[in-house]
């Protein structure tokens, strides 16, 4: 019973582990931050980590410290001037250390494919802007083998969600000389598996960056805000208690461009949050990528 209660508290965490997140994503690991600047194509690898701590309400002896890591392949292709294709394939490393047990798992997560359409591009002197709108699908590539007799307790420790999920996405970029503003909003509609449905997720972020050029490389330090809202999970169309919530985070990072080689990183820290009825706290999160643009 003790393990079941803690699992309920943690069920929201799969949103950061098993979706695209794309990024993030995504979800799960579906995190959408500043993409590498590229003219036609890019591909590379990205590492993200998320850490959480939970305590059962009114009983701090029942706790868990969770640490989720993802290494993913990601890429982008611009098709002509109007279309953009993005793809993510994550591999997850999950660690859940509770008051009475240590659980570890790893495996390929769910793949995500997205297509964006350039609604408009405008250039006026030293200022340019563009708006992209699109959507995508998360494919149940990752393993989902939750115990059907205790699905709430075991669903959060799976590599994937077992469902086809759909994403809507909008991206706006404004550039003024060496400055740029990059904002993104996306909504993830989750399917269900074995009558279990992870809550839909809304996430949005905005980053401000500035290009600083040197003889050997160009740097783009950036700072941003991220907001995430997670609906409650459902079992047989009934909401699962102590799941869902929202959080506001700040992010600081930089992109370094060595010609066609791009290295990017950022650290995300919570400003305010209310997850799992206040029983779960998001700690530090971070991202590092190495990409090749051409």
Automatic annotation (TrEMBL):
Residues 1-19 form the signal peptide. The keyword Signal applies. It comes from the Bacteria. Keywords: Signal. PROSITE patterns: PROKAR_LIPOPROTEIN. This is Transporter.
